[in-house]
Amino acid sequence: MTNDRNLVVSTDGSALSNPNGPMGWAWADHQGGDADAGGASNGTNQIGELCAVLQALRAHPGERPLVIETDSQYAINCSTTWVPGWKKKGWKNSQGKPVKNRPLIEAIDQEIQARQGSVRFVWVKGHAGDTFNEKVDALARGYATAAGKGDREGCLPIEGWRSLLASPYAKGTQVPPTVEDELDGGPQVLDEPGRKKVRLDQEEQKELAETAVESEAVDAEQAKSVEATADADDGIPDPDVADGQEDEPSTDSKDTTDADTPDLETKDSGARGLRASGRIRITPPPSGSSMFTGQDLHIVGSIDLDADIDPDGYVTIHEAPFRLHAIEVRD
């Protein structure tokens, strides 16, 4: 729950043709209409999600409690549950590999620890009609589209650039010259680490939202191929990131008061404890794509059901619509 004293902000990350497609991030206040967005010519939606959280934290310092709403379980866990275990292991996962996106995750942790007011994370279901979730989705997707076309210069927190350039998806990334200088030890090009000097005005917000609408047709076409993905949050961590959570249980506290113990609240009113299990077949299969080269894939999506259910819970489905939200290529 929120109250009038809380600062409430929504965040989102977007990657077109995730991974290694144009990337965007965005945050938006629930009060006052303030918002910001950025992106790059390359990236992943996970990097975008983390950039959005970091920028939101930096844009909202002070003593007032901060509530961050996001549809990314990955961003929430990277900001809360998994961090203590990674620190204990020297930022290595259980396989002894370096934690991905460490510069961003460390920066988020530092911002939370340094913030005077508490920080609380609320998970919201993506693409489910939440006004502010839809707004940041449009802003992030709009910037990603513009960055991919070269219409907007790349804009990430410096930790975002470091995470991106250290990833397998950096080839061909267009890095602004001033950012290259800062990465090489030159002066900061931003007024604070990672924050733009001027946020989006209302006209820019409108422009990005319109750009996002134009890109929806492209997204729909890409979703038909298993090599492309709609730019909604994938909802899952990279395989070696998930391993970092083994030592730290999730917190389900609803009222955090300590800034160094942010918690998670769920805003999905549709969840009623129901679960589905079993094996289903998605058609057309990955092997049917001419672009498929045998990668191990992980998908996130939803099935629209309209069927009878027997007393034991079994449902028979046939040609049920499947909505693809995201695809991850396993390392």
Automatic annotation (TrEMBL):
Requisite cofactors: Mg(2+)
Entry keyword set: Endonuclease, Hydrolase, Magnesium, Metal-binding, Nuclease
SUPFAM superfamilies, per the entry: Ribonuclease H-like
Lineage, top ranks: Bacteria, Bacillati, Actinomycetota, Actinomycetes, Bifidobacteriales
All residue ranges annotated as the RNase H type-1 domain in the record: 3-145
Assembly with partners or alone: Monomer.
Compositionally skewed regions (Basic and acidic residues) per UniProt: 192-209
Domain of life: Bacteria
GO MF terms held by the record: metal ion binding; nucleic acid binding; RNA-DNA hybrid ribonuclease activity
Enzymatic reactions: Endonucleolytic cleavage to 5'-phosphomonoester
Family statement: Belongs to the RNase H family.
Stated name of the protein: ribonuclease H
Any one of the GO BP annotations: DNA replication, removal of RNA primer
Region annotated Disordered, chain positions: 171-293
Its EC number(s): 3.1.26.4
Pfam families in alphabetical order: RNase_H
Bias (Acidic residues) ranges: 230-250
Keyword Hydrolase set for record: yes
